[in-house]
C-alpha cells in the first residue's frame, strides 16, 4: 500500500518527504559548521557524536550524504536505547 502512496505522492508521503529533506538540510548545516571549526582548529574536543563522526571522517573523502545518514542512524539508535532504559 505504501508504494502506491509514494508513487502518487499522497499527503502523508509528501509530508514525510518534506520532513526528511528538512532533517537532511539541518544535519548538513551542522556538519558543515563542524568541518569549518575543525579546519580552523577552533574546536578540538569531541563534545558530541556528530563531532566524533566529522573528526573521524576528516582524513577520508566521505561525502556529506554518508555523514548525514550516519548521524541519523546514531540518533535513531539512541532513541530506542533511551526509551528502553527509561521503562
Automatic annotation (TrEMBL):
One Gene Ontology term of the molecular function aspect: monooxygenase activity
Cofactor needs: heme
InterPro entries reported in the protein's UniProt record: Cyt_P450_sf
UniProt keyword list: Iron, Metal-binding, Oxidoreductase
PANTHER family given in the database record: CYTOCHROME P450 (PTHR24296)
Family statement: Belongs to the cytochrome P450 family.
Name by which UniProt lists this protein: Uncharacterized protein
Amino acid at each position: 500500500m505504501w508504494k502506491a502512496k509514494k508513487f502518487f505522492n499522497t499527503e502523508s508521503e509528501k509530508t514525510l518527504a518534506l520532513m526528511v529533506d528538512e532533517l537532511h538540510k539541518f544535519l548538513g548545516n551542522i556538519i558543515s559548521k563542524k568541518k569549518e571549526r575543525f579546519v580552523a582548529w577552533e574546536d578540538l574536543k569531541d563534545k558530541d557524536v556528530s563531532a566524533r563522526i566529522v573528526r573521524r571522517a576528516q582524513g577520508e573523502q566521505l561525502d556529506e550524504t554518508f555523514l548525514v545518514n550516519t548521524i541519523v542512524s546514531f540518533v535513531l539508535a539512541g532513541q530506542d536505547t533511551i526509551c528502553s532504559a527509561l521503562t
